[in-house]
Amino acid sequence: MRKLTAMAAALLLGVGLSACGTDGGNAGSSSGDGTVDVGYVQLPIFAPLFVAQDKGYFADEGIQVNLEKVKSGQDAIPLASSGKLDAVLAGFSAGMFSAINSGLDVKVVGSMGVADGDTERPPSALVVRQELIDSGEVSSLADLKGRKIGALGGESATSAFYVGMALEEAGLSVTDVEFVPMSNPDIPTGLRTGGIDAGFVSAPFWEMAVSDGVAEKIWTTPEGTSGTGTLYGGEFAASEDAQKFHNALARAAQDLQGEQRYSEENLRIIAEATDQSVEDVKSVPLYAWLPDLAPLPDQLAAMEQSWMEIGALQYDEPIPQEEYVDTSFADNVAASEPQQSGATDE
Q: Which residue of 26, 183, 261, 316 has the lowest C-beta tally within 10 Å?
């Protein structure tokens, strides 16, 4: 029955890819033939993918990578499970856990952007309507109880998990607030009109709300927090190309350490890959990346628990992590110091 459910999910959700095209090509499983088909969301948070492609790191590993834009990881997971895509770089969501629980064969093998601990100009932040701050109605995270919180994707997405982390610091939970699904550009407007009381929102939109006097920043994600990563289809994970792909991504991540992420070359690559100008990319705080792009099992477990608590997942017991998390690819990168030591010299 579980296999039938997985097949039905793949048929229903496996649509909507549009070719991107650095290399072009039609999507299709490679699983060891030297060609890797990758679905990705077109955002700077996935910069290691763009850097590895532009600098030829995939070619150095002996693989050709075809890039395919997807709207979300949830849309692409059935394609990875069925072998129509080999890897997916996207955000995590309740839908991902639901898909895995239904039997879709994917593995979380790596993280992508992580918070760098900058509390002054973070890539994203929880902001509160200025009117509530000025009136004294909200002076701490605890005062958000019962309030409406704008969040990209609503209660089922990563933004809600981050809000839950903030609420936990105040002894509250995700069930103590009402999530309002909103796009990042709409959150400042929602704060201005009073449609929401607070919002978890990415830069530059939280900065715009603060500079316009509409909101005040109250919390940022702790250093090392990540809600995005790399997933492999089960068949591809067992192929020799899987390690090669992760090696190239990690090599690119090492090029993006510290202030190097803002180098002229890296900014150009990110700008071209995301259809922005270099100045646009430079003006917004970038995430950081772990040098080996290791997955974060503890955070994945916390995400799943949060979405179970709020009712976004329709099952009661956590999925055993050995069924969907594979740290071996990052472990192998960390064990190959001589190969990686020169990665940032270029």
A: 316
